[in-house]
Design goal:
mainly alpha, hpI Integrase, Chain A, 9 helices
Length: 217
């Protein structure tokens, strides 16, 4: 089985900082006055940011990112946004509803505003576009988006599955495996266990807690 390059907590912060930086840059330039060529380049840049954000904070598979349309993104005008992963795009029919983190919801909300300045997207349009604005990026393009963006942000390329494994590992730190199983869309708990990884910081914290519980304090 391929070894996954799980992001450390510091790398996760760095990646989200890079997404925020890229988003602010696009927002400062984007608009109807922008030449068509540059608008396409910035849409690609936005697509790269969305790909990484959806994998890192929602744990979506490449096929699920490709199949995510704006109609499946709900609640962006509220404090509780969520994604509906449709049965036709989910692996083995593992349809599910995922609550967005606040930073992912913010990314989606701002991306929709940017798209609307040029495309005025309909609910059936893809969240992450490919070479044509009305067509979704294929899974191969999405993988390229992820590796290009993470190389720029972290110097080391990461795949969508690296980010998905990171999502699972981070989620397990604050909840149980059943919740992680549902979030990842796994039918078997054994599949989820493959996605969770122990990092040195996890072991250090566990040993510290063990010491605290046995030293008589």
């Amino acid at each position: 089985m391929q070894t996954r390059l799980i992001l450390t907590p510091d790398e996760t912060v760095l990646l989200w900082a890079a997404i925020e930086c890229r988003l602010k840059h696009i927002e400062s330039l984007f608009g109807p006055h922008l030449p068509l060529f540059w608008r396409k380049e910035h849409v690609k840049s936005l697509a790269m940011s969305l790909t990484c954000g959806l994998a890192l904070d929602a744990g979506l598979r490449p096929c699920e990112i490709a199949g995510l349309s704006w109609g499946f993104v709900q609640g962006l005008d509220t404090d509780l946004a969520y994604l509906n992963v449709a049965v036709e795009t989910a692996k083995r029919g593992s349809a599910r509803q995922l609550t967005c983190s606040s930073r992912l919801a913010d990314l989606l909300r701002r991306a929709l505003v940017i798209y609307s300045q040029w495309l005025k997207p309909e609910s059936s349009w893809p969240v992450v576009v490919g070479h044509q604005p009305r067509l979704p990026a294929c899974t191969r393009t999405l993988q390229r988006y992820a590796t290009e963006f993470t190389t720029l942000a972290l110097t080391t390329p990461r795949t969508i599955y690296d980010l998905r494994h990171t999502f699972a590992t981070n989620l397990l730190r604050v909840t149980n495996t059943r919740v992680v199983q549902h979030a990842l869309g796994h039918k078997k708990l054994s599949s989820t266990q493959v996605y969770t990884h122990v990092q040195s910081c996890d072991l250090a914290e566990a040993i510290s807690r063990m010491e605290s519980s046995t030293n008589g304090d």
